[in-house]
Automatic annotation (TrEMBL):
Gene3D superfamilies: Aldolase class I. This is FMN-binding glutamate synthase family protein. Keywords: Oxidoreductase. The keyword Oxidoreductase applies. Pfam families: Glu_synthase. Residues 73-335, 360-413 form the Glutamate synthase domain. GO terms for biological process: glutamate biosynthetic process. InterPro entries: Aldolase_TIM, GltB, GltB_archl_type, Glu_synthdom. Belongs to the glutamate synthase family. PANTHER family: ARCHAEAL-TYPE GLUTAMATE SYNTHASE [NADPH].
Length: 451
């Protein structure tokens, strides 16, 4: 045996501390880990792309004098009343149950102030959410919890959810501590009992049934409002084509960096493909079906900054949808919550009780959110005041759109929807191959034969 102590202390690449901890926990408890948020592993992302902004060969626009338009229209294929938004940044579906009623109200207020849409999520529509939201997308999920035809007619669009980026092929979870009397009543479930959502819709088994379901939804709403189809990013090209064939007005693709309130960690880290890889595949599918521009494309999963939004649009998305970033803007993982008078109250101790710290918390599933976001606890929920949260979220969305238009003008565009692949280059071979843009400093796109 070698006497070199440095070799004896060398960590195994396969059985590192993370792997050892996982095995020990599985052996001790016989249970898989459930958590919230999204994938923690590093995957190729929009951070691996850069803009080739204007210089001599391209003419930039003056930021103070030349306007850059960001208006966005969704649902132009069949709907009599397409959605018209001021910005191409929407708020993703997050349920009442996983989030508090105060949070849902704050989302609606902020979306209305910014001229964009928000989305219901599993468990139905709350009156506060509908009243505060000028434009509200109503989700139809496999569980059908809280699904109500009367609420459907109050919606401005419908989103048929087939999957989610954090857990494609799996259903949602709402643990018993979050099934409050109100949540239980809306979902027709027993109070305080763990709830699992189905992983597929109960009344269809394939694309033909999806077409029938979309037609039913259109008939209920008199063909007035758009129908979205949302899918987790897996077999993107095939899935998008089937959604288009079934009659979708809008296709939503959610990459693996997307978040969730609660699911098995094995789903979060080991299913789906990165958003960066999914987006070009979806665009290619729409092009193959000759519906580019007719069927709109929304991309989601790990969108955080205005640069992310700009890169998504340059790669062919019509809009983006944000979930985790929205919650962070409200105060998720912050060390304090804000009172109505503006004073911050430190809750570092509450994070410690959960065995975590601000910036590292993924305990959405517990219902013990220290800042009052992912909770139904009557003592914790008031920590998020709707008006305070809405102001923070409006500021965040405003900054994203300012960054988006700034980058578009720098590339010589008078409309954010004029951004294109030619405005991008990749910093890594992997990102170049996934995004199908040249590696920076070359004309080489890996996998295409272009050099």
């Amino acid at each position: 045996m070698s006497s070199d102590k440095s070799i004896q202390r060398e960590e195994s690449a396969s059985f590192n501390e993370h792997s050892l901890s996982y095995i020990r926990q599985a052996a001790e408890y016989g249970l898989y880990e459930i958590r919230g948020m999204g994938a923690k592993r590093r995957v190729p992302s929009f951070d691996d792309l850069i803009f080739l902004s204007a210089s001599a060969s391209r003419y930039p626009l003056e930021g103070y004098r030349e306007k850059c338009e960001s208006k966005t229209v969704l649902g132009t294929r069949y709907a009599k009343q397409p959605i018209e938004l001021e910005i191409p940044i929407t708020i993703a579906g997050m349920s009442f149950g996983s989030l508090s009623a105060n949070v849902k109200e704050a989302l609606g207020q902020a979306a209305t102030q910014m001229g964009t849409s928000t989305t219901t999520g599993d468990g139905g529509m709350t009156p506060e959410e509908r009243e505060s939201s000028k434009t509200l997308v109503y989700q139809c999920l496999p569980s059908r919890y809280g699904f109500n035809p009367n609420d459907l007619r109050k919606a401005d669009a419908i989103e048929m959810v087939l999957g989610q980026g954090a857990k494609p092929g799996g259903g949602g979870m709402l643990l018993g501590q979050k099934v409050s009397p109100r949540v239980a009543e809306m979902r027709t479930l027993p109070e305080g009992i763990d709830q699992r959502s189905a992983c597929r819709h109960p009344d269809w088994t394939g694309p033909d049934d999806l077409k029938i379901k979309i037609e039913e939804l259109r008939e209920i709403t008199d063909w007035k409002i758009p129908v979205y189809v949302k899918m987790g990013a897996t077999r993107v090209r095939e899935d998008v084509k089937l959604a288009v064939k079934a009659g979708a007005d809008v296709v939503v693709i959610d990459g693996m960096q997307g978040g969730t309130a609660a699911t098995q960690q094995v789903f979060i880290e080991h299913t789906g493909i990165p958003t960066l890889a999914a987006l070009p595949l979806a665009v290619e599918a729409l092009s193959d079906m000759n519906v580019l521009g007719e069927v709109q494309l929304i991309i989601s999963g790990g969108i955080r900054t205005g640069a992310d939004v700009a890169k998504a649009l340059a790669l062919g998305a019509d809009a983006v949808s944000i979930g985790q970033g929205v919650l962070v803007a409200l105060g998720c993982n912050h060390h304090a919550y804000q009172r109505a008078d503006g004073e911050e109250v430190d809750v570092t101790g509450d994070y410690a009780k959960l065995g975590t710290a601000p910036g590292y918390c993924h305990h959405c599933h517990t219902g013990q959110c220290p800042v009052g976001i992912t909770t139904q606890d009557p003592e914790l929920e008031p920590r998020l005041i709707p008006e305070v949260g809405a102001k923070r979220l409006k500021n965040y969305l405003q900054v994203l759109n300012m960054e988006l238009t700034t980058l578009a003008r720098a590339c010589g565009k008078s409309n954010v929807h004029h951004l294109e692949k030619e405005d991008l280059a990749a910093l890594t071979v992997e990102a170049a191959a996934m995004a199908k843009v040249p590696l920076a400093g070359t004309s080489w796109i890996p996998g295409t034969g272009s050099v």
